[in-house]
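Review form for a predicted model. The reviewer records the input and the model, then writes brief findings.
Reviewer: anonymous (R2)
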Amino acid sequence: MAEQHAHQHDHHHHHDYEKANADLFTEYAKTYRTEFSCEIAKRCASYILQKYPFDSSKTEVLDYACGPGLVAFELLPHTKRIVGADLAPGMVDVFNQSVEHQGISSDKLHCVHTDALQSCIQAYHHFKDPTDITRALSQRLKSKGRLMIIDFIDDNETNKVFQQLQHEAHSDIVAHRHGFSSEQMINMFKAADLQNPQVEKAFQMSKSEMKTYQGHEVFGKAMNSDIDFTLNYFIAYADKA
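Model under review:
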């Protein structure tokens, strides 16, 4: 499994792991805005907006592991301010260039570089210890704030895809946990002292639907194999007391 490779490869080289991940996703940033990634971002934002009473005069959002900001831009009209944070300098640059090109004030939307160890959305399966990240993010929440996560459901369908991907490049560096179960998410929320944890199925996308969007090539050889699959996404959320 890719996750095991990452742990073994990196037991005494945590900094190397973080740097390799950041370098890889800096490369991804250059071609990240595809039909496929934009469609996923729209669906993520739609579910996030359903699960919290956004108020454009006061809701402030930290979008952790924001990538190039596709979800943040979808949420922006419903918020007072969004701060994106990402480990990859290339993602931070792409995000902030997009803000500038669209004439948006950096007071309302900007991205910062953050080290995952020092410290939000569909990248938990890239983190070495998501429980630590959950604790760190919960500390940044205001009272009555909500931590929301969208990621892959850990099921046979998702595992099929990642098993194919693990034979391709970078499988010994990028930690892929193949998604999460409801139980894992609830346990992470509880470990971070968050209240009322909920995990719900969000949306799904079949291989045949993925192929209709430019940019589906990010899933590599899995798209050209005989294996049929559907990616299932969950939304998980919990509140700060």
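Findings: The radius of gyration is 17 Å.
Further findings: Strands lie at 60-64, 81-86, 109-113, 146-152, 195-206, 230-239.
Recommendation: see findings above.
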